[in-house]
Amino acid sequence: RKTKTLEGKTILITAGPTYEAIDPVRFIGNHSSGKMGFSLAEEASRRGAKVILISGPSNQVMDDKRVELYRVTSAKEMLEKVFQFYDNVDIAIASAAVADYAPKEVAKEKIKKNDDSLTIELVKNPDILRTMGEKKSRQFLVGFALETQNEEENAKGKLEKKNLDMIVLNSLRDEGAGFKNNTNKIKIFTKTERKEFELKSKDDVAKDILDFVEGQLLK
Ligand code: PMT
User: Fold this and answer.
1) Neighbours of 178 (CB within 10 A)
2) Is 207 labeled as ligand-binding?
3) What is the ipTM of this complex?
């Protein structure tokens, strides 16, 4: 079996959380560690792809020096970085957990605890993946869906609405799946296919995802 199965392909991968500033010391974030995206980037690079990895704040380190790693903080920065490269990639995989909302205004100074309650107005962030779907031409576009209920229905809805070629579903109802863990349990959907996988390490999940992508590219 050929090992450099992605030779000649350029892959863009997003990873990690985004942090949306509230004031100079606080932010709205989420539990994403970046592991899933880093595993995908390493595996794609091992298969010979040119890899562009755009990650939100994460403690993950990239040992593979061939991976082009860009670190960003907020959803807006991630969007900007993604579209610096998007036109020229063959495959894009969005594994980042992007904040759907951000504070409308970022306080210039640290907010003082003077009041018994505090309201922070949030406004919708750009949907990076949806924008990728709208601008899709040559790219094979893969999204993720992180769900807690009506998982399959929601994932298929995102596949459709965001104009994706494939979506990877992980559910927080499955033990060992989703955030932080070194393991994940996924289901993959295309418009016509559905495949369920066992719980395994994120490195092995990355192999399953890229095997599936390669299978789709041959069709
Ligand atoms: O980083 P780890 O700790 O290893 O955890 C991995 C993971 C759980 C974060 C990962 O496997 C995962 O599920 N990533 C997607 C998380 C998510 O935000 O899912 P979602 O269903 O809310 O979003 C759907 C898709 O739209 C995702 O591909 C997301 O990247 C994208 N999106 C969402 C909102 C937004 N404003 N812009 C986006 O691009």
Assistant:
1) 22
2) no
3) 0.99
